[in-house]
Amino acid sequence: MPKVKIDNFEVEVPEGTTILNAARQIGGDIVPPAMCYYSTLKGSGGKCRTCLVKVTKGSEKDPRPMPKLVASCQQTVMDGMEVANITSDEVLNARRGVVEFLLINHPLDCPICDQAGECHLQDLSFEHGLESTRYEFERRTFEKIDIGPYIKLHMTRCILCYRCVMVANQLTPERVHGVLSRGDHAEISTYIEKAIDNDFSGNMIDVCPVGALTDRTFRFKSRVWFLNPMDAHRDCPTCSGKAVVWMYGNEIYRVTARKDKYGEVHDFICNTCRFEKKSINDWTIEGPRDIDRHSVISQNHYEGQALTVR
Ligand code: SF4
Ligand code: FES
Fold it and tell me: Is the shortest distance between the CB of 172 and ligand 2 below 6 Å?
């Protein structure tokens, strides 16, 4: 099995593992951020460039460094490879540039955005963003669109990571949604705003790294950091029925799939569980969900609170 060194931490991984996934096996701060790669969606990655790293030694056989920074979600490791992420100023500078580009058109409307507190772009801007913009041109803006009864699209916030398109391609039988046009005209469209009403369309909300796709049944109801996320399950004929219910007292404000520490879902849930089961009697509550990545939520010391079930 190839051995790779990332920021001086060594790990041995199976052949064909990407640098990003090798870094995830090490864990901690050396894991590159990923805005478009999503391990459970085939073909994802390679769009956003936030995961760029520097390969300082190609392999044991050919130790030459790679001439340009590479996308760690796409580049597979070789035996003896050495990679620099947070130990390289060149990488950190490039990441600052990528964040600046992502923010050219993205509105800074975090105070009213439902994704605030669990938005990967918010985290990235906090770590790498500039205090002000150097962009002098008019930003592109779009009208908000209802994608069916449950999902709202704010195209102005979209960073074109293609994750939602992959959910549509891979989880739903008829794709009615994709990216139209290219360059600064590119936009997510439902092809004449045709509603996406199949059973798994709600998963687009969970995979969206920003607040471009939001849950219409939850919009403006609360901030995520006021809610207590609880692992819960129910007998569901369509999906595994394993979800997270976000509660305020005994009320369920929203239901999402369970995400790992990189914000990725491994067990996608159906629309019935997500949008229609908002009563505490619909669920068996297992206990508080441990959220270790998004500090603003994990700051909420809900573990100590008694859960009273009516
Ligand atoms: S709507 Fe969200 S998930 Fe879809 S491409 Fe835009 S940012 Fe990505
Ligand atoms: S996560 Fe690698 S290019 Fe987006």
Answer: no
**Ligand 2 closest atom vs CA 48:** 4
What are the sequence ranges of the domains in the chain?
Answer: 8-97, 106-133+141-215, 224-289
Ligand 2 contacts CB of residue 271 (under 6 A): no
Q: pTM for the full model?
A: 0.87
Q: Does domain 8-97 have CATH number 3.10.20.740?
A: yes
Is there a shared CATH topology between the 8-97 domain and the 106-133+141-215 domain?
no
Measured from the CA of 160, which atom of ligand 1 is nearest?
5
| Long-range contacts of residues 94-98, Cβ cutoff 8 Å, at least 24 apart | 94/49, 94/52, 94/69, 95/33, 95/50, 95/52, 95/124, 95/128, 96/128, 96/129, 96/130, 98/48, 98/49, 98/50, 98/52
pLDDT tens, residue order, the chain (310 aa): 999 999 999 999 999 999 999 999 999 999 999 999 999 999 999 999 999 999 999 999 999 999 999 999 999 999 999 999 999 999 999 999 999 999 999 998 899 999 998 899 998 998 888 878 888 888 888 999 888 889 999 999 999 999 998 998 888 777 777 888 888 888 887 765 566 777 898 999 999 999 999 999 999 999 988 999 999 999 999 999 999 999 999 999 999 999 998 999 999 999 999 999 999 999 999 999 887 655 566 655 444 343 433 3
Domain 106-133+141-215 grouped into CATH 3.60.21.10:
no
Contact 3 CB / ligand 2 (< 6 Å): no
- CB of 35 shorter than 6 A to ligand 2: yes
